[in-house]
Amino acid sequence: MNVLRHLAAIFLLPCVVVAVVPLWLLTSWRQVDLRWHADVVAYSGRAVGLLVFVAGLLLFTWCVALFARVGQGTLAPWDPTQRLVAVGPYRYVRNPMITAVAAMLVGETLFFGSAALAAWSVLFVVINHVYFLMSEEPGLERRFGNAYVDYKQHVPRWLPRIGQ
Q1: Is the alpha carbon torsion for 18, 23, 28, 33 positive or negative?
Q2: Structural domains of the chain sorted by starting position, each given as residue range(s) with its CATH number in brackets
């Protein structure tokens, strides 16, 4: 049952963001979307995009595993972690899972050379930034109290501090 909870959360959230919406954008906006042409820049962009996507996927997988093992919950707001996760990549940034999904979107953008996917990537980051400021962080403060307040003071939201 625990595995099903995680799979449902992954399917309903990141899979929609990284697979369903990009597929819709790539097919529905094909006539007006900018794309790579077959040249050296396109092949380089695709190679870099694939590497960025895989790096994001690996980070995402690590974060989901930490949510299950350490946090004893899922990535879904309706089935959140029971414990504060402050290990692994969470020692360096508070939201590495969102960073991972954004990396996958950037990887797709580079792979396809798509302006529509670039716009979706930016919109995803903006929506999540606003959501974290207005809902997620206040909710974590209520759930985890001083432990989260202390964590928030020592760990940056999106980008790790240089030299950590």
Answers
A1: positive
A2: 2-154 (1.20.120)
